Amino acid sequence: MLRLRAVCPPESSKAALDVLQEHVGATHVVLFPGAAIQPAGDVIEADVAREAADEILAVLCSLGIDHTGGITLDVIDTVMSDAADLAERDAPGEAADAVVWEELVSRTGEESRLNATYLAFLIIACLLAAVGVITDSPITIVGAMVVGPEFGPLAAIAVGLVRGRWDLVRRASLALGLGFVVAIAITAGGTWLGWTAGLFDASAIVGDHQVDFVYEVGPWSLIVAVLAGAAGMLSMTSAKSAALVGVFISVTTVPAAGYIAVAAILGEWQKVLDSAGQLTINLLGIVVAASAVLMVRRSRRFANDAVRPLSPG
């Protein structure tokens, strides 16, 4: 279940309480009159079944509470209550299938920001990928896949496209584009230092190697990217985050970026182009699949809303 807290002006409190008291998916409704200081108003709390959260949030936002006050959601790990069990039983749908759209927008929006932490993870991942390419180590390549933070911006682009949030699309695209450019440039610099120090030579990527799959583009590259994008978005929208690890280690976005840097320094330009193609196919495949999953989820939500209309007051 989720803990919902709303700070709202007194004139909106009755309508908000009516929504929470009338919805079968909400319970443990509490009112603290005049408890909020900034912004001033009443504080309302309730425990909400995950499958009912999106519907309730939509009505509370229609009251303008997100503008005149504020609404927050927190995950509750343990609830011991017959009333909570009843709310989860009577709420329409299943918790694992529920999408809390505002939560998704907030989460992907945060993960799509171009900041020092995001760049640090992407740079480290690309450097690991370069080491894996040079040492012909698939294990190191897998490690680079896990460290890479690129799925956050990719998911944000998908959410922005489906929800019409073009600000989110622009911000995530900037994080991806500039992030990969910076990471590849720094990785190329590190590769050049290793090459001039005599740590390796062109034979590192000439001939057959175990990690050649990184730059070998084919139909399976797109198939894997599409499956990974679908699985990743299903994981994010159903709160089953454990599946994201499988997504990270199934696509060759970061390894392809690392290979671009190594191949460029060693003058293997065909492999640079092949790696760039691999990177592009993976990025596009993930975004398309993630967007398709969201569109299916959104259509199901609209169908459910048509059957169960909920209005404030």
TrEMBL record:
State a single Pfam family of this protein.
Answer: DUF389
State the source organism's domain of life. Bacteria
Please give the start and end residues of each transmembrane region.
116-135, 141-162, 174-197, 217-236, 243-267, 279-296
List the InterPro entries hit by this protein, alphabetically: DUF389
Coiled-coil annotated spans? none
The protein's UniProt keywords, in alphabetical order, are: Membrane, Transmembrane, Transmembrane helix
- Name of the protein in question: Uncharacterized hydrophobic domain-containing protein
